[in-house]
Amino acid sequence: MRARELAESYPVVSVDTDALEAVRLMADRQLPALIVFDVNGKPRTVLPDSQALRFIIPEYLQEDPALCRVLSEEASGELFRALAGLTVGDLLRQGDSRELPIVDHDATTMEIAAVMARMRSSVVAVVDGGQFLGAITLVRLLPHVMPGGPATP
Amino acid sequence: MRARELAESYPVVSVDTDALEAVRLMADRQLPALIVFDVNGKPRTVLPDSQALRFIIPEYLQEDPALCRVLSEEASGELFRALAGLTVGDLLRQGDSRELPIVDHDATTMEIAAVMARMRSSVVAVVDGGQFLGAITLVRLLPHVMPGGPATP
What we know:
Two copies of one chain form a homodimer. Chain A has 153 residues and is α/β, with parallel strands linked by helices.
């Protein structure tokens, strides 16, 4: 089984997408990660869901979560108003585009698993000559790499 | 809304659990992470699904995924035979028990989200005086931290 046979369509966002909209998409579709394209339609980064939280939680609160306890309802509302109108690109950090969990269309299941383990990603993008074919989630991959292969009911 | 109200029962494994069994549990229940208890029944680590892959993918393959392409079917079979009988504890790395995505039962939703973002974890364990109450997944939490709160149909 090769990556192209396992790749499924997967919603992508762009650096121009509204940040809150991106988080809503993730929530609604229960995505394990956001795949972010740059303005040229090439994969720029894959953000695990926990990292996409930075789009709604400011960095100083991530660094000191206990501070959240003293936030009033009103202050929480302020946080979100401050985020209104910001794009995904505005909130990406330096380094978010370094190494990407991307596999070639003919990668083997074991290779896909090794890339996920290495990059600590539950999703890999599948490309063919730079063209995005779709994505493979770990949940989809796992039965194919378990000893004995996928269950055959 | 506090952590204790959002906590749900969540399967846990122990350092004594067979490693392949732990991965099968993760696959069958589609868990975003494995919560690993030590022999005293205290949370020892929370391994994201992509990191639990190390239980089936040896480290040298994670470091050089392209090597997987030259693995024969037979060699893959060897890999799994080598893992047979190993426990989760055998395969944990040094440092796996450092900082844990754990929140107190009275943590606020914003605090839980900040802990997830900080620890890069899609799951947090909820404790009350050291006692494990259950876990909160990011998918469950997200509607409660979105601006406007959870949808009320």
